[in-house]
Every structure is written in structure tokens, then in C-alpha cells.
Amino acid sequence: MAILMVISAHFGLNYILKPTKLFIDSAVGVHLFFIISGFLITTLLLKEKIAHGKISLKFFYLRRVLRILPVAYLFLIVLIFLNIYFKLRIPAFDFVASFLFFKNFPIKSVPFTAHFWTLAVEEQFYFSFPFLLAYSTRSYFKAAIFIVIGILVISILGFYLFKPIHLPPAMMFVIKVTMYSFWKGPVIILIGSVFSILTFKNIIKPEWGNKYYFLSFILLLTAIILQTRTFPLYSPYISEYISAIIMGYVVVISINSNNFLSAILNNAILVRIGILSYSLYIWQQLFIGRLPWQPWLHNLHGYPLYIIILIKLLSLVIIASASYYLFELKFLNLKKRFK
User: Fold this and answer.
1) Residue 146's CB: how many other CB atoms inside 10 A?
2) Could you read off the pLDDT of 270-284 as tens digits, one per residue?
3) What is d(CA 86, CA 90) in angstroms, rounded to the nearest whole number?
């Protein structure tokens, strides 16, 4: 569902939906992905800690490398050749930022690699927080709560109260960095991580999702609407935070649940899209935009938008499927050896 929101928004579906007043916000899909990612990674590490008494950071990083780097680097290598052949003028520094995963820093970016900011956030989360979790779950939980609440409070104060006030330059710098980290840092991932720990502590129980058949679906829909920027009651930072909290709760009560949302998520088509989701996300950047501005799409000029979207979708599915089955799957099978 997260990748479908991102692709729909990036490929121009909002222009078709304009008369209906509906709007698909790609940022909502990214945040949903972050919540799921934080929950999943923390859950796997906690299960390992319970089963073996400790977390093998060596195997953890081997699994993450095999999961993320091969397809990401394949995309960048292909893009280097496209950059040369089509004279795209992508600067070398942009490739360096993408390869080294610091695209979430406030630096000038190009459309072809803009999505690597999310991978940078993921990698920076992996480089820091698992160490503390391996040391002490309690310390990790306290630190995560402190960061999640602290960054939110500073961001809200910075956005709604501090702007008109002339504060010392050093303080304003800290506030701006904090506000930026809310959007481009691992804060949303940490919220998913916190919900994982709350589940292990039995504070939130997955079986609650079976009590009301439509509850998880209604909550997820509410979270999506709250965070959508065209929603009349949307408030920066506050809406994202409340939405993330709701998403985290939905993830928990969707585990082993038998309700309306689980029936949708277990649909064979959505399951297949989920399997291909990472490859879809990586390669969709070659087709972003309502207009076919990329050199390889110039022949589509003059076609109706829905035809352009369908052609881009078909091209993306073919490329992502080839990437997954001919390349990514080999590394995923290798990754299984380091469980």
C-alpha cells in the first residue's frame, strides 16, 4: 500500500483525480514504510535477543547490506551509464551522496536520485540505534521515547512559536536542525520501533485487532487523511506525528488478525506488489513526473495522461520484476544464511 501511494503520486495520478478533490500524498506512503520498517527491524532484533540472549550485530549488518545495497547500487550504476549516454548532467557529487547514503542532508539534489534520501535515513538508523538495542532494551526504549517526544516538541515550538521571535543564532541553528531532522531523520522509524517494544512488553496486544472488524482499516484511513497536506485540518508536525502514532498502532493490531484490513492485505495482488516493493521503489524514479520529460519517454509526448501512466507502470513492473528475480533474489537467498 505504501509503494502504491508513492508511485501513484509520482506518476501523475493526482492530475487525473483533481476533479474528484482527492489527493494522494507520496509522503504518507514514505512514512507508512518508515513505521513498518522500524517495527519490523526492532521486532526481528528483539526476537533474536530473546532466542539467543544477545544480538549479533555482525549478522545484522550483513543482512542489511544484502537487502539494501545490491539493488540500490545496481540502480546507481545503470544511472551512471544513462547519465553519460543521454547527457543528463547529474553531478558526480550527487552520485557520491547516493552511494554513501547522506542524501537526506540539506544539499542540492536531482530528480533521478531524490528518493535516496529515504535510504539514507534507513541506513543512518541502522548505523546507530541497533548498538544501543543490543546493549540494553530498556536504555534503547528510554532514548527512543526521549528523541521521539523531544524532537516533536522542539519542531512544533520552532514552527508555531519561535519563528517571529529573535533568538540567539546558535539556538536557532539547533532548532532548525531539529525541525529538519523530523522530516529527514529517523524519527518516524523510531516510532515504529517504539511500538515493537510496547508489543513485546505486552502493553499493546495484537489480538485487539480482532475485536472490531473494521477498526484497523478505519484507523489506517484516518492516519492517511490526517497527514495529507490537502486535508483542511492538516497541521505540519502535529498531523505527521499523530498519523505516525496511529500507523504504529495499526501495524501492531494487524499482526495475525482476521479483520477487514488483513483481508485486503492478504490479497494475492497486494502480496505480489509487496514482494516487489523495494525494486519498484528504486526503479520508479526513472519515470517520475506527470510529463514525459525523461529522454527515454520523449516519444510519449501528445498521448493522454492515463496512457502515459499505464505505459510507465508497465515499464516499471517489467524492470522491477527483472531486477527482483534476476538480481535481488540471489542476494536475498544469500541473506538467509545469516539469520
Assistant:
1) 10
2) 999 999 999 999 999
3) 10
Burial (CB < 10 A; 0-12, 13-18, 19+), residue 284, is buried
Task: Give the relative orientation of helices 137-160 and 187-200 as an angle to the nearest 10 degrees.
Answer: 140
To which residue does cell 542524501 refer?
103
**Mean pLDDT calculated for residue range 176-205:** 92
Structure confidence at residue 164 (pLDDT): 60
Q: Which of 251, 238, 291 has the alpha carbon at shortest distance from 34?
A: 251
Assess whether pLDDT exceeds 90 at residue 47. Answer: yes
Q: Are 191 and 40 in contact (CB under 8 A)?
A: no
Round to whole Å and give the CA distance between 179 and 151: 7
Which residues, other chains included, contact 37 with Cβ-Cβ below 8 Å and sequence gap of 6+?
122, 189, 192
Q: What is the pLDDT of residues 298-326, one digit of tens each?
A: 999 999 999 999 999 999 999 999 999 99
| Closest alpha carbon to 328 in 276, 252, 284, 269 | 276
Please indicate, yes or no, whether the overall pTM of this predicted structure exceeds 0.85: yes
pLDDT at 206: 87
State residue 303 phi and psi, 5-degree precision: -80, 150
Q: What is the pLDDT of residue 175?
A: 87
| Domain extents in the chain | 2-338
Q: Which residues contact 231 (CB under 8 A, 6 or more apart)?
A: 225, 239
Decide: 175 and 154 in contact? Cβ < 8 Å: yes
